[in-house]
């Protein structure tokens, strides 16, 4: 039986907040008009007046009004765009041009602030005059511990983070635990910044349908799935319980391979031991080695899933209802067409 995530409870809360805002402000409830900022269009749940947000680290950012000009880590920028927001800039491991997840999204007018992890053009950032910077923070263990002495995700070091904070306040969303919880936190943050409620709800409806489809496909399939990244040093198999998206797919019935090597998030195999990696379907990171590279590895070239052609791109789909609906639909299709080979 499914447990409601947001639905009527969110609607009741939004209605209550909206009514209070209307009574206090005496407004007619119309949404803000587009002005090239990060504001959403249509009916919005962003409250007028002061804005505050407590992030994953326990820090609370308080501003006199809802942030309009927002710079966002690429992982979360995708979600904001899906929800109808318009970031003024983005940064992260990949540029928008190289990140598959941005394909089909309207990125016109969004500044690219760097070309890789930790690369942020501070002068360009300052010129954007952001009201807020949004990034993520990863736990350091399976207990969900957050090390606040380390920089947020996407920052080269603590010094760079402080330089960014001198330009605009930074909030961090935890990228760990249950996938559906992270999705909800990002949706809540997006709505607080002006994402139209109707847009979020439509995406959630798509998510529900894709979830049903994935559950049916997983139940009908007997294949196992391994998620991995590879480079010259070896193969890194994702521990499904430590990755929010894989944790969520597991809860929907997908059978993921748990790596034998111990360690948080990754089970690391040297190329000498890569032949131990099993699984009928490979979800291969869009970064690092691709199929042609794996085929050149003597200890991995005879991998059953690789030889069967059952390898698909693991794009690390953004944790929003729309992005997840798209990827879950694809995954359901792959499960249905794949054969048990390991």
TrEMBL record:
Main localization of the protein? other
Q: Where is this region: Disordered?
A: 30-52
Q: Which residues form the signal peptide?
A: 1-25
Top-level division of the source organism's lineage: Bacteria
Give one Pfam hit by family name.
Peripla_BP_2
Q: Which GO terms describe its cellular component?
A: outer membrane-bounded periplasmic space
Species source reads Curtobacterium citreum
One GO BP on record is:
iron coordination entity transport
Sorted UniProt keywords: Signal, Transport
Question: What SUPFAM superfamilies does the annotation carry?
Answer: Helical backbone' metal receptor
Task: Keyword check for Transport, yes or no.
Answer: yes
Q: Does the keyword Signal apply?
A: yes
- What's this protein's family per the entry? Belongs to the bacterial solute-binding protein 8 family.
Residue span(s) of domain Fe/B12 periplasmic-binding: 116-315
Compartments annotated for it: namely: Cell envelope
| Stretches with biased composition (Low complexity) | 40-49
**What is the protein's given name?**
ABC transporter substrate-binding protein
Amino acid composition bias (Gly residues), ranges on this chain: 30-39
């Amino acid at each position: 039986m499914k447990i409601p995530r947001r639905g009527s409870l969110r609607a009741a809360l939004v209605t209550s907040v909206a009514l209070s805002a209307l009574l206090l402000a005496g407004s007619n409830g119309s949404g803000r008009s587009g002005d090239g900022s990060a504001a959403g269009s249509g009916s919005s749940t962003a409250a007028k007046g002061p804005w505050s947000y407590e992030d994953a680290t326990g820090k609370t950012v308080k501003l006199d009004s809802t942030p309009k000009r927002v710079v966002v880590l690429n992982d979360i920028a995708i979600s904001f765009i899906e929800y109808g927001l318009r970031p003024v800039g983005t940064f992260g491991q990949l540029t928008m041009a190289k990140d598959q997840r941005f394909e089909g999204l309207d990125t016109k007018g969004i500044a690219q602030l760097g070309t890789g992890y930790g690369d942020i053009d501070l002068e360009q950032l300052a010129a954007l005059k952001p009201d807020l910077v949004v990034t993520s923070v990863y736990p350091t263990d399976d207990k969900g511990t957050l090390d606040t002495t380390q920089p947020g995700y996407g920052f080269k070091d603590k010094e760079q983070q402080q330089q960014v904070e001198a330009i605009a306040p930074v909030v961090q969303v935890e990228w760990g635990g249950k996938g559906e919880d992270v999705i909800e936190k990002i949706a809540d943050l997006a709505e607080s910044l002006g994402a139209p409620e109707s847009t979020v709800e439509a995406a959630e409806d798509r998510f529900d349908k894709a979830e049903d489809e994935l559950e049916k496909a997983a139940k009908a399939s007997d294949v196992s799935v391994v998620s991995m990244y590879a480079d010259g040093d070896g193969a890194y198999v994702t521990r499904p319980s430590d990755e929010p998206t894989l944790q969520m797919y597991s809860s929907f019935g997908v059978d993921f391979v748990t790596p034998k090597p111990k360690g948080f998030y990754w089970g690391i195999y040297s190329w000498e031991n890569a032949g131990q990696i099993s699984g009928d379907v490979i979800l291969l990171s869009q970064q690092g080695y691709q199929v042609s590279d794996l085929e050149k590895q003597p200890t991995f070239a005879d991998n059953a899933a690789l030889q069967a052609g059952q390898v698909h791109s693991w794009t690390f789909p953004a944790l929003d209802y729309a992005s997840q609906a798209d990827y879950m639909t694809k995954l359901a299709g792959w499960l249905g067409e794949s054969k048990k080979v390991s």
